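pinned: reference chain
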Amino acid sequence: MKTLASYYFLFYLAMSVLMPYTSLYFSERGYSSTTVGLILSLWALVSIVAQPIMGMINDRINNPRKILMICAITAPVLGMGFQFVDGMIGIIVLSIFFAWFQSSAGPIGDSMAVEIASKKGYSFGSIRLWGALSYAIGTFATGIIYNKFGYNNIFIYYLIICATVCIVIMFFPGAKVTRSKISIYGQMGAVIRNKPFMIFVVTSMLMMMSASINMNFLPLYFKEMGFNKSWIGSAFAIAALIEVPMFWVATKLSRKIGRYQLLCVAAAIYGVQYFAMFIFSNVTLTLVVQLLNGIAYAFVAGTAVEVVQSYATKGTNATLQTIYAAVTAGLGGIIGNTLGGIIIDRMGGQFLYLILFCLCIASSLLFMVNRHHQHHQQSISG
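pinned: its structure tokens
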């Protein structure tokens, strides 16, 4: 558990110095919001292909340590290329390879952690909260540092922290390589035939698409509204800091009210945050409602991984986790980042948050309907 906690702490510390600031990084280099959205959408497009393939490979060779090490080394090395490439062709080529390895590490690590946690008798949230803590620390510190020194070196910081992630991965227990009797096509077919899982994934995509848009375009929202950009890091830190106790609360609530009900509540909380940012244009209120963002994310991150794991059959755990990530963050990111950049350019940041509010309310209602349908099906089968 200590090794997994250390991994999550360092992995999300690396994420905190990079992902919240990529939109500003490209914006400061002179790209329009629409172009930035298209670049981030390309990252999401690559993840749709990369995550399921890497997940199926992991399920076949049963060695997540090896795959995580490859991702932890390759992604930051490729990311350094953005420091030296200016043309769009170079950015596109780098984006394809960078996003392939960067996007695959998270769901594979989650599939390993949730499986170990279930066997050892403790919750996934008790491990994941260390990532929330480091993300809070990282975003707060980098918000101050980047505001003072600029955003040009974000990939250098990412590389340095990823080096420490590699050290921790070396302490993971090695897994004996075993071949699955099911082919990769067979694995994919089993997933597609799992209708309850696919319905859950599509419903989750609406909610996670809004969260992805908020993370990527919140810095541009600050820029458009004329807020002091030094507060951007604090906004992400506030959300991440409240996640730490909320992961523990999510575990208790999930057992008390049910996983689907908790996800319904999370989507509604996201909606309240986005509606407040649509109605008001005040930096203090914007910072305060980031608490809602952190609460909702903790409810989702700890619960959704366990829901996905409950749908998994033997040899499909990492496959389902990576497909869930590919559709919610990948496909949702493509649609969201593309539309997000266009909406900001044409209608403004505040209108974008009205769209996010509608997405979350729709997701909350669908979670309620899905839970009712699932309960009905269980009653019939019983």
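why pinned: The chain has a mean pLDDT of 81. The longest helix spans residues 88-120.
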